[in-house]
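4.2 Preliminary Data

To establish feasibility before requesting continued support, the project team ran the inverse folding procedure on a target of 544 residues. The structure was first converted into the token representation described in Section 3, and no sequence information of any kind was made available to the design step. The complete token record follows.
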């Protein structure tokens, strides 16, 4: 079943039941805002600030957007980008795009103006829907992206160079356009990147989306009575495809805007959440808050919380052991995946295998795995090689990049670039990554981008950026800087210069040393990792 059919079915079976709730603890002071949603989005008087929509309204709003896009000439083969923070409009917009037969293109809300323009060009985007937080960035690139493209603003006080999504959508029909869709039709493009820092456009068809939804429901035994708490950004494959398990069952999901242990516990308690997907830093913060007494379990209604699962980065075994001591009744799962494999779940631990915590798990529903050597031959159990996966959630290709597609998809197998081994029980364990991508707090950092920026500092002769282990974030970015002869600089000088980078891209540690390069001019990063990565965990507090 196509995911748009799942939405239609829920609108018929559960028309008046709540589908989505948006909770924004940090906007309590904005509760006086009048949301011009023609009575389709209900605001409540509960604290914190909260909006909700039913399944029938969800479906209706997706129909309205679809009809708006169709009236502007959008059709199959076109690309429509979404640049929004998590909000109650996000998923109806996504499904409205799908209902036209066009391809949805979620954009990372951390992108700079130049990165937004690059990704729009890379994916041949025809339409951009963006929120008020991005007015400045989009305005910078209007001359670059406006020709032949439509810009729709999702919010109040629409800028003059865009059109108001809310005003136009309200005028459109709520009837389903009923555009025929098939499993092999293009559905969505997600962006990823290797160590070069240039994002690749990952194309998925509708079969991939259906696979993700059915797999999530099966892996975590989701029922109509479950309530899923979604905290990570919806542009990410992980958040959206975990939510699609709720879609298969017509169960409620809560979008929490704001991350803190108290926000999470408050929302789980108020909304009676049963399933929560967390990142390692959030797990660490919750446990720290409980241990310090900043949070007390008895202050919240948490008995209905049945499953906590983690993904997007390596999960320390000790962290889950601590969690189970506090929440012994919780099921636990970890999920491994890539954007190329429709996000998390192509390998998963499984709630029944908590005794194997530390492994990424076994092949997920309808997935196959193998480990190969450099020649592509399978290795013996216990030997380290590259992890490859195969299944119905594989990407179609890297859009407009046949060479990269050929390198990554080989005989129907996705070469992940991750080094792994399989133990005697059939469980897969990650060993290392071929790629230089640094995963910090579930987000990818691309060393070349940081290196290029630091090279602009007048005293820098050479620079290399590597990941160092960090208990809370998984990894942090460390910059090894070789100064020009006769030049001096301090750690504070470099940190002040890095203020021009987005906060999440700034290195957390500065090391002044020579940067080794091999005979071909490549930085010897394995040597740097061995030299600095084996010294133990980095003190986060002293390097913020």
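Position-by-position output of the design step:
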């Amino acid at each position: 079943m196509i995911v748009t059919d799942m939405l239609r079915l829920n609108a018929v079976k559960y028309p008046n039941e709540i589908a989505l709730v948006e909770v924004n603890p940090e906007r309590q002071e904005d509760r006086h805002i009048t949301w011009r949603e023609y009575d389709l989005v209900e605001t409540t008087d509960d604290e914190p600030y909260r909006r909700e929509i039913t399944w029938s309204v969800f479906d209706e709003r997706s129909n309205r957007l679809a009809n708006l896009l169709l009236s502007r000439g959008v059709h199959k083969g076109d690309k429509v980008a979404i640049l929004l923070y998590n909000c109650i409009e996000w998923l109806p917009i996504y499904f409205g795009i799908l209902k036209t037969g066009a391809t949805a293109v979620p954009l990372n809300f951390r992108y700079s103006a130049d990165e937004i323009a690059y990704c729009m060009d890379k994916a041949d985007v025809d339409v951009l829907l963006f929120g008020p937080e991005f007015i400045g960035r989009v305005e910078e690139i209007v001359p670059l992206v406006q020709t032949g493209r439509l810009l729709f603003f999702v919010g109040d006080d629409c800028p003059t160079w865009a059109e108001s999504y809310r005003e136009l959508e309200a005028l459109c029909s709520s009837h389903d356009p009923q555009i025929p869709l098939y499993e092999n039709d293009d559905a969505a493009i997600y962006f990823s990147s290797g160590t070069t820092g240039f994002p690749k456009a990952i194309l998925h068809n509708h079969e991939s989306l259906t696979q993700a939804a059915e797999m999530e429901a099966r892996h975590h035994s989701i029922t109509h009575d479950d309530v899923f708490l979604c905290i990570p950004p919806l542009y990410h494959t992980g958040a959206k495809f975990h939510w699609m398990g709720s879609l298969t069952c017509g169960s409620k999901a809560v979008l929490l805007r704001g991350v803190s242990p108290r926000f999470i516990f408050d929302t789980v308690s108020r909304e009676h959440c049963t399933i929560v997907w967390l990142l390692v830093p959030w797990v660490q913060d919750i446990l720290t808050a409980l241990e310090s007494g900043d949070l007390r379990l008895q202050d919240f209604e948490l008995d209905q919380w049945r499953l906590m699962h983690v993904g997007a980065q390596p999960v320390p075994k000790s962290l889950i052991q601590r969690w189970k001591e506090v929440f012994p009744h919780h099921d636990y799962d970890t999920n491994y995946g890539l954007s190329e494999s429709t996000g998390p779940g192509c390998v998963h631990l499984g709630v029944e295998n908590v005794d194997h915590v530390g492994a990424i798990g076994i092949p997920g529903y309808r997935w196959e795995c193998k480990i190969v050597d450099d020649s592509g031959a399978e290795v013996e159990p216990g030997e380290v090689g590259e992890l490859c996966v195969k299944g119905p959630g594989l990407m179609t290709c890297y859009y407009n990049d046949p060479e990269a597609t050929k390198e990554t998809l080989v005989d129907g197998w996705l070469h992940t670039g991750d080094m792994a081994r399989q133990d005697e029980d059939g469980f897969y364990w990650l060993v290392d990554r071929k790629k230089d991508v640094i995963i910090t707090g579930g987000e990818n950092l691309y060393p070349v981008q940081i290196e290029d920026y630091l090279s602009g500092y007048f005293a820098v002769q050479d620079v290399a950026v590597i990941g160092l282990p960090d208990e809370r974030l998984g990894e942090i970015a460390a910059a090894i800087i070789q100064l020009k002869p006769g030049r001096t600089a301090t750690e504070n000088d470099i940190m002040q210069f890095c203020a021009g980078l987005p906060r999440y891209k700034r290195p957390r540690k500065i090391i002044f040393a020579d940067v080794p390069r091999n005979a071909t001019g490549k930085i010897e990063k394995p040597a740097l990792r061995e030299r600095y990565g084996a010294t133990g965990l980095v003190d986060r507090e002293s390097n913020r």
